[in-house]
Amino acid sequence: MFYQSFFSPVRVLLLCSILLITGCGHPDTIHEENNEMASEQDSAEQDQKDDKDNQNTHVDQVIRILGEEDFAPISYEEDGEIKGISPDVIREVFDRMDHEISIELLPWARVQAKVAEGEADAFFSPYFTEERNRVYLFPEEPLLYEENVFFVPADSDITFDGTLESLRPYTIGTIRGYISLQKSDPDNILTIDDRSASTEQAIERLIHHRGIDLFMNTNYIVWNTLQEMEKTDKVKELSPPLDSFAAYLAFTRKKDYADLAKEFDLILQEMKDDGTYQRILNTYTK
Question: What structural domains and CATH numbers belong to the chain?
Answer without folding.
Answer: 61-145+247-284 (3.40.190.10), 146-244 (3.40.190.10)
